[in-house]
Design brief:
By secondary structure, the chain is an alpha+beta fold. The chain has 13 helices and 13 strands.
Length: 414
């Protein structure tokens, strides 16, 4: 049999690996000393051409199916390991067939859950891991992916400012559909709950859990957190026509959960407006690049996200979802953004940059609307902001423009 290599960008160095040996017999000098999670299959990490690859020995049809599934998930921008290649047609020195190997790129700075628990972790780690897994599962389900084997073992975790971010590492049982039914989603939840309880019990038996709570009770959190996220992300909200400030309130809650709003769909009826928000998590720097392309405004990422959110509200409120995006953005710029920034008196120019002023005016309007429990016109909020808030702020241009070498030395400084 001839060795077969399937890869989008094949690396000739792959052919130098000892494919005639079963994976568990590969020599130690080839292997990278990285922690491995629990797997039904033999998995090894190897260094190749300056990268670390994970190699999993598996039946050829399963290897090819999982390779294509991981490629599809990557195209959908899902948090999953990156497929690298499939090697099939393997035989040992005596000509006996060997299983194929699925090769993926090692996800840098990631750890399986058991490796995390081998460290000294602060209380509540299990719940943070489950929260991260709930976010991952919601994202996969929104994309139409049924996992079929949801577990901590099939997930890699990266630390994320005191929390964790979760990545799918095993798509062997998964199926990708246009849309999942409620029954399919609930099936994945049942699988997750049972698997997580078993994994935590295993940790507890080994003295690694570092938690005082019952593993079964902790595993139930995946169901609770998943449903909270799913309802927040997909539920429709009916509002009165005078309460459009609630759209911004919904966006804030989604942002707090780590989701950015890609689309607002507002359907008006006799009783008010039915708001359905479709979320999409986007990559770092996405908002500033998109805003620059649409409007020419060059601002920082959080400012760009805030401005794009307001552009989305403007698009929906004016019923222009089907119009050319750049034309709508230009109209928003000239009729909403610029009238706000141009009303700042010259003597207050040095307080804040224009994009930050606009952001603060939107914040101020939201607080005013929340207190009043009805919409506040933007110009009314701007008038109040210019009178009550902006004059008391320091001149940031002056502060930021100071050469630090010219600052006076404070008492106690060396």
């Amino acid at each position: 049999m001839a060795l077969e290599l399937t890869a989008a960008r094949p690396d000739p160095a792959l052919l130098d690996l000892p494919w005639r040996l079963p994976l568990e017999e590969w020599p130690e000098d080839l292997l990278a000393a990285l922690p491995r999670g629990i797997s039904r299959h033999v998995v090894r990490f190897v260094r190749l051409s300056g990268r670390v690859l994970a190699v999993k020995e598996i039946k050829v049809d399963l290897a090819r199916r999982e390779y294509e599934m991981l490629r599809n998930l990557r195209r959908l921008d899902m948090p999953a390991v990156e497929p690298f290649a499939v090697v099939s047609g393997r035989v040992d020195a005596d000509g006996n067939p060997l299983d194929a190997c699925l090769i993926t790129r090692h996800l840098q700075f990631s750890l399986p859950y058991r490796a995390l628990y081998s460290q000294s972790l602060r209380k509540g780690t299990a719940t943070r891991l489950i929260d991260a897994l709930a976010v991952l599962l919601v994202r996969l389900h929104l994309a139409g992916f049924w996992w079929g084997d949801v577990s901590l073992s099939n997930t890699l975790f990266r630390r994320d400012a005191g929390a964790f971010a979760a990545y799918l590492v095993d798509a062997e049982t998964g199926e990708l559909r246009n849309r999942l039914s409620d029954g399919q989603r609930e099936h994945d939840l049942d699988i997750a709950r049972v698997n997580i309880a078993g994994e935590l019990m295993d940790l507890d038996a080994g003295g690694l859990l570092q938690e005082e709570r019952d593993p079964v009770e902790v595993s139930e959190r995946i169901v609770t957190r998943y449903r909270e996220l799913w309802d927040e992300l997909t539920g429709s909200q009916v509002i009165d026509d005078s309460e459009r400030w609630r759209v911004d309130d919904r966006i804030r809650r989604l942002n707090a959960l780590g989701f950015d709003v890609d689309e607002l769909e507002i359907t008006t009826d006799i009783d008010g407006a039915s708001i359905r928000i479709q979320p999409k998590v986007v990559d770092s720097g996405h908002h500033s690049r998109r805003l620059l392309r649409l409007t020419g405004l060059d601002v920082r990422e959080n400012q760009a996200r805030r401005l794009l959110n307001d552009l989305g509200v403007y698009t929906a409120a004016t019923g222009r979802q089907g119009d050319d995006e750049e034309i709508v953005a230009h109209d928003w710029l000239t009729s909403v953004y610029e009238p706000v920034t141009r009303r700042v008196p010259r003597e207050l120019f040095a307080k804040l940059e224009p994009a930050e002023v606009f952001h603060e005016v939107l914040e101020h309007r939201w607080y005013m609307a929340e207190r009043a429990q009805h919409d506040i016109p933007l110009q009314e909020a701007l008038t109040d902001y210019l009178a009550q808030v902006l004059p008391s702020k320091p001149d940031e241009v002056a502060v930021l423009g100071v050469d630090t070498e010219e600052l006076p030395v404070l008492a106690g400084d060396d």
